[in-house]
Amino acid sequence: MSSHTIQHWNPEDAAFWQRQGRGIAQRNLWISILALALAFAVWMVWSVIVVKLPAIGFQFSTNQLFWLAALPGLFGATLRIVYAFMVPIFGGRHWTTLSTASLLPTLGIHWAAQNPETSYAIFVILALLSGLGGANFASSMANIHYFFPKARKRLALGLNAGFGALGVSLVQCVVPLAITAGVFGALGGNPQTAVQNNGQTIQLWLQNAGFIWVPLIIVSTLAAWFGMHDLAQAKASFADRAVIFRRKHTWLMSLLYTGTFGSFIGYSAGLPLLITSQFPAVDALDYAWLGPLIGVLTRPVGGWLADKLGGARVTFWIFLLMTLDVLAVLACLPHGRQGGDFYGFLTAFMVLFASSGIGNGSTFRMIPVIVLVDRKRAAARQGPAAQEQAASEADMETAAVIGFSSAIAAYGAFFIPKSYGSSISLAGGPQMALYAFIVFYVACVLVTWRQYSRRNAPMPC
């Protein structure tokens, strides 16, 4: 048996935790955070690339560019559904190593961007492969869930999710700098001539958008293989986890998590190109990274408020605020490419990101409470042994529900940018998409109120 496989793991035992458990758990957590941040960066790299493709001569329509920004979200979200169940089957160390190594196809951007004859179909394939990064969140969260005692679990998962999601802001901040210089010398390839809005030309190394992550991916893969562990007791079959699909609240919380995390990741993917299409005189990459950063930094605030006020109450008011935020965005857009208030638009979007971040934290707090109460209700009046078994089942199901709901929510990374592209193609602007988002947020308000936040709600939390 490999020394990286731990047969007996009991973090609830204080002596075990102090003696060896805490050190092992923290090492696995920090390696997981590094791998997850890279995964988010690779997932969102196309949100930056699409802004610069027209400048270096690729003649793609606005709708085609939004497709490229959206496709990683589609593929990543779909794979998340599978990845959510991989850790119990293969083990956390093995799966983290494999899933991190799978990010290396980002190297394909290095060749595609340098060849002006690269077809749109090749870019589509590369964008889809970047979706592999988006899938990693589900397995990463499921893995870290097993390492920590209940008293520390929420903090560990919050750190993993929060620092991991910093990869979104990181890619939108680092890539615009990396593509302005030949930082890899001859190995990095030749620059492209880019035409700016004012007609001036500059040199860009767009291939660096993918190449810059390759060394970090290799280091992270090796760190996962040599530094992480598999927990034997975390092994389980798909059938053991599939019970969550029969739980009503799995689907309801997936809807609400789509409204919060799905908004965060979807707006992150779509905002750079949306700014470029609506305010062409503005360099979108100067501002777009701010939104994801704000969303990540406000996530702990959502968790704190949920602990103080209740997750459902916070989530209810957040969805109301997000509805108003979208109305503010609509009011600031140009009409027929005339007028518009960019700084009002940007401010409204920053509030949207802050709201989605707080909502991420509050909905994340709701899931374990709902699962535990639901399992204990099912075991009511069956004695202490049944209650203990219910708590154990709730712990297992919570990990599965978090993974699955994050998979559903990740479709926001596809639907939001694609909705912009379709709306612009059909109606000349993104207004239709934004009105659809309002309808969705209103639905989330009603579900939250009816099921969780009102007095005498079926599942108060």
Describe this structure in words.
The chain is mainly alpha-helical. The chain has 2 domains: about 1-235, Up-down Bundle (Growth Hormone, Chain: A); about 245-460, Growth Hormone, Chain: A (Up-down Bundle), CATH 1.20.1250. Helix content is about 75%, strand content about 5%. It has helices at about 15-50, 60-85, 85-90, 90-100, 110, 120-145, 150-180, 210, 215-225, 240, 250-280, 290-310, 310-330, 340-380, 385-410, 410-425, 430-455; strands spanning about 5, 190-195, 200-205, 230. A two-stranded parallel ribbon has the order 1-4. A two-stranded antiparallel sheet has the order 2-3. A hairpin with a 5-residue loop joins strand 2 (about 190-195) and strand 3.
Summarize this entry quickly:
The protein is an all-alpha fold. Helices cover 73% and strands 3% of the residues.
